[in-house]
Amino acid sequence: MTCGDxxxxxxDYLEGTLADEQARSLEAHLADCPACAELxxxxxxxxxxxxxxxxxxxxxxxxxxxx
Amino acid sequence: MKPLGRLGAYPHAPGVRILxxxxxxxxxxxxxxxxxxxxxxRALKSYRSDEGAFATWLARLSRNLLIDxxxxxxxxxxxxxxxxxxxxxxxxxxxxxxxxxxxxxxEASEILQNALQRLxxxxxxxxxxxxxxxxxxxxxxxVLKVPEGTVKSRLNRGRAELARVLRQQxxxx
Lengths: 67, 173
Fold this sequence. Notes:
Oligomer: heterodimer
Order of helices and strands of chain A: HHH
Radius of gyration of chain A: 15 Å
Number of strands of chain B: 0
Largest sheet of chain B: none
Strand content of chain B: under 5%
């Protein structure tokens, strides 16, 4: 898998919709490519923050879900 | 209940959130917000409570209006410089790192909106349409008139840039 291939597949991977075989191939690339690993890590962190912000915003509470 | 009162009662409905996400992005964001709210206001007469929840109706209407807006303005928007799109925003985040558990819901939303405003328009719209508006990739590609691969590439870079901006604002991710 090339970095270009990963870029196309990464959103599906992070959203959990990538097929198992492709996911394994992508993970192997991440293990060997620091730049792609950083991209994936930051993208995942941003997604998680947006998810929490949406949840807190909907609940209108100062207390996010524990854990 | 007055129409605007009803809108105000749904500050976190998907449609309202997406409009608020665009608001504050310089004059174009403000224009869009004002235009869409005006059109929503006019369309309120067509809402019937037996057709479903008001929040759902508003989300659907907002999405359609947003797609219309993109189709109409995309060519014009593409000529804008990034600097022109970036707002002069007030730094409202604290200067010291805080545990995320201390972020109130409203504050988290404001931090997110401010951080999104720091992204270039191409990256910002990809993130907003996918992660906040939860549109399908096919829909986003249609709206932006770019291949799905381009949408996904912009989404990756937009999300990663958002994480970097949040870290710069000392938000613990």
